[in-house]
Every structure is written in structure tokens, then in C-alpha cells.
Amino acid sequence: MIRVARSPHERTLDGEAQRHAIDCLLNCYLREYALPRGEASLDCQAPDLPMGLRHAEGRCIGIRLADGSRLALLADRTSVLGRCRFVSPPYFKGHGQGWRPLDAAELARLLLAPMNGPERHGELLEQIDNSLRITRTFLTHARAANHDPADTLLHSEQGQVWGHALHPTPKSRDGVSEADLLACSPEVGAQFPLHWFRVDPALIRHQGDDPRGLLTQIAGADHLYPCHPWEVSRVLADPLVQRVRDLGLLEYLGPQGLALYPTSSVRTLYHPALSHFLKFSIHVRLTNCVRKNAWYELDSAVALTRLLGPLMSELGDSQPGFALMPEPAASTLDLSAYGSVEEAREVTECFGILYRQNLDEASRARYQPRVAMALFTWTLDGISACQSLVTHCAAQLGVDQAEAAVRWLRAYAGLLLGGSLHCLFRHGVVLEPHLQNTLLGFDAQGLPCRVWIRDLEGTKLVPEHWPAERLAHLDERTRASLHYDADKAWKRVAYCALVNNLGEAVFHVANGDAALEKRLWREIADLLEAQRAPLGDPQALRELCAGAPLPSKENFMTRLLMKADREAGYTALPNPLTAACCGECR
Fold first, then answer.
1. Closest CA to 493 of 421, 586, 390, 445
2. Topology of domain 368-580, per CATH?
3. pLDDT for 560-583, tens place per residue?
């Protein structure tokens, strides 16, 4: 076989993709497995470390594996939650062997070996490899979207090459060709037209607001209905669709109309001239879930928008600066008259679209919104993306970087926690305020002054506040999909807000400064303590302020065990709040 020599640039990209895959795998493994079992040290002082790690700057991370073998590697920063950034390859030492470096594939096999469910290892290993290869592709083709640079929202939506920092497969997209990846992925600045069908109007169904005017605006013609480019081959191969096409009720027209931009969720599309985002079905597994719009999710999103209308209005007074993004419409095709219930449901889900209200042009211009995940991550140069915003804020306020960091984080955390906890404890509404669901807006000094939470798919209701009779008008399956018991509700909100979101925010805003990190957690502790009385001193919040552990969703184990995201387990993390304030908030 002839080997083609790779250029230095290609080797660099390979190294960056490998480094990030290793970073994700080991951070997941440390948080969900090694640290809770006492099998890892974040400051390893073993006398027989690899020569390359003995005198280098940074902390040596040591991990003991089940068979007594060991891993060691260097981190240039660690957090109180055990979050690390690694700056060396992982070195492995087996019984009677010397140290040797591992690549991501070798590391994955090694970490999975002692875990339950070996019959499932193959699928996860394939997805880890898929994520690695796709990351490498995105690094090769990453570029800014070709649009108005003042559209900070779009820049942040399409600037997330790395993805979820604590997921084993952050960029996996099963079954998608490289050509389709490059045509439709936000990480490469894609924009593309939808694929359209001319449809007998009697087959189009919508709930909530009528979206047909919006579809006409995009298509440039009436009575057309779209699907995502990644879904069209599935639709055209569907037997029920073929039967309806043969009857002349459905005609495939191909791609046309306004080119839309994929956002960070990949399947949700944006255009600055449109009043709504469009969230499409794609039968592609992204990270943990196949991203189709289940039929009951079409019902529940619109139902939630109606049910939460009074809350959305009330938030403007009770939690100024905090808002939910409504999803007032859903649409699909109903072919039930031409096939079985199962056949029609498949088509309903393939063609399902949810419509999320966009921020208006004035708000985008005034608040310069950005997706939180795009701020609390690394740039392609390895710098925390939020640092430029904190530096700008320091200049505007006339304070040093550390003081600006404290004020910046306090402003953001106050909005995020105030709104999320108010919704949970006062209204029994369980939001998912994780990094990808959170938008930030800024004032003239660069401080966060607005937070929007999006994606009602993940929003649930606590039965004590929302008994079945309040939801009696909904389909039984839809109603069941909306309910979360109080314990699960608290764990989901606490994880999303405090671990996934603010945990990463603190890690990146502190920028490796341990004293500043402690200060930032103290600010969060003070904010939570101040929330207790206004919220009626709920037990879960009281216990958290007293030192109860933080719940951290188990992304690694959920993917390994092939669980539905709703059934994900939680690891108990040491509480950084009480450690930061030394008992002051008890």
C-alpha cells in the first residue's frame, strides 16, 4: 500500500483532534468513574512518572485502573470539580512494562475494558472514532459564516468546533457522509436551501400559530412543505410517501428557496430575516440522541408555550432580564388516510417541524446575543473564548481583569439562577439551562444583562404544581412526556445550571487562577443563599447551601449503556460552594 505523506499542517490538525478527544474521554472518566471511586489523583507525585512529565510545568494527573495498571498525563489547569485541560498525551504503564503514550482509540478501549456491558463497547468505540474523524474534518474546513459580522448570534451558533466538553462523543454524527457534513454543519459556516415538496393542502397539519406564511416566505411559493437535506432520502424511500406521490398528492421539487443557517444543535435552522427558528427532524444520532421530532414532542412544545404563557409574561416583572423563548407552532404532514397508524406516524415524525420565536432585529443589535457554549470553550488557538469579553468589560469598567471577572460572572449567574430556580420552585417548571440552551445578552459595559432559555423539548413539569387535571386536554402520551418528579426535576436543573453551565463558566472565566476560581464559586454561593427566602427555603436548595453534593449527569455511562437521555444517572460531585465560602453560607 502506498502511503501519502501528510503535511505539517495536517499532522497538527490530527494532533488537535486527538488531543480534544482524549480531553473529553478522560474528563468524563474522571468525573463519572475514577474520582468518585478514589482511583485518581489530580496532583500525582509518584516517583516513577514518565520522564516527559517529571519536570514539565503543570499538574500530573494519575489514574489507577482496575487491573492495577496506571495512566499519567499532564494538565495545565484543574478545577475544584475535577475538570482538567490536558497538555500531554496519556501515558500507560501495564504490569512489568514501561510507560508508553496512547492515542484516543487505545485510551477508549482501555477505559471501557473493566466496565459493564462489554457487548455495547463496540458501538461506543465506533461513535468515539466517528466523533474524532468528524472533529478532524471540521478543523480542516472551519471558517466563519459568510454573513454580516455584526450578527453575533450566528457567529456563536456556528463557532463551536469542539462541542460538549464532558461528552465522550461530542461531534458524532452517525451515517452522514463527509459531503453532507460539509454542506449542512454549522462548524464549517454552512448555509443551504431546504428540500421542498408540493403538497395537497389537505395533508398539511399545524398546531398553534399558522406557520404557512413563514414557509411561503422561505420557499417563495404557496402549498410547499420542506424537510432537512439529511432527511430527504429517508422520506423519498418511505413506502407511504411513495404511495401518496403515485396518487399525485405529493411531488418532490428538490432544493430551492432561501438558504438557511444551521445552529449549534445542527437540525435547528436560522436566518436573520425570519421571525422564527425552524427545528427539523433528522434521523441522525448526535451525541446521545437520534434527533427526530417525536410526534408527542410536536404536541408538547406548542402545549407548553400555551401553558407557560402566563409565566413568560410574569418573568418580565419577577425576573427582569430572564426570558423563555416560545415555540408557538408546529407542523407536519398527515398521511393517515393512506396507510396504517405506524406508517403515518413515521411520516409525521420525518416531516415534523417546530417553530421557535427568534430574537427581533432590535434586540439582536442592542444585546449582541451569544450562545453560552460558544463562550465557555476554547478558541482554535487554545484560549478561553470568554476572556476577550471579560477583558473588554474590565476596560469599560476601569477595573483589573480579576475584578471584571467577578462582576461578569456575578451578573450572569444571578440572571441564570434567579430565573431557573424561580421557575422550578415557584411554578414547578423544569428548564434545561445548559450551555447550548442558554443565550446571553450584554449591556453597554459588556456585562451580561439578558439570559434567554430555549428548547421546550427538554422542559418538564412537576406534578405537584401541574396535576393531571391541569393537563387533561393533552394526549396521554404527551402528558406523560411532560412530567418529572421533584427529585429528578431538581437534579436536572441543578446539573444544567450549576455543573454543565456555571461549572464551565467558572472554569473558563477563572482561566487557571485557583484563587479567582474560589472567589467565583463564593459569588455563586452568595447568590444561592440569597434565593432561599424568596423561594420559600426549599429543602433541596437549603441542603445544597449546607454542603450537599452537586448532581452531574453521566454522559459517558448513558451512552455506554444506551440509555435514553431522560433516564440518565447522576454522579455526586463534591460541593464547591461550601468549600469556597468556608461555611459562611450555612
1. 421
2. Transferase(Phosphotransferase); domain 1 (1.10.510)
3. 776 776 778 899 999 999 876 654
